TrEMBL record:
It comes from the Bacteria. This is XRE family transcriptional regulator.
Amino acid sequence: MNKEKLRSIIVLNGENQNVLSLFMGITPQSFSGKINERNGAEFTQSEIKLIKDRYNLTAEEVDEIFFSHFVS
């Protein structure tokens, strides 16, 4: 996961992780665990879709953010 890219998109849209986590219906602690991939935590497909729709991300941006570790 490219957490730096996700964080930059959040900031460029005038928000922070707390705002996004509340929009998504998860706690800020849960969001933090997922963005930092703590203990294997990952965003679900529905959470990725919420983020994609909120920030009008392209399919390429979604791939870069959430699936970058799958590409070698």
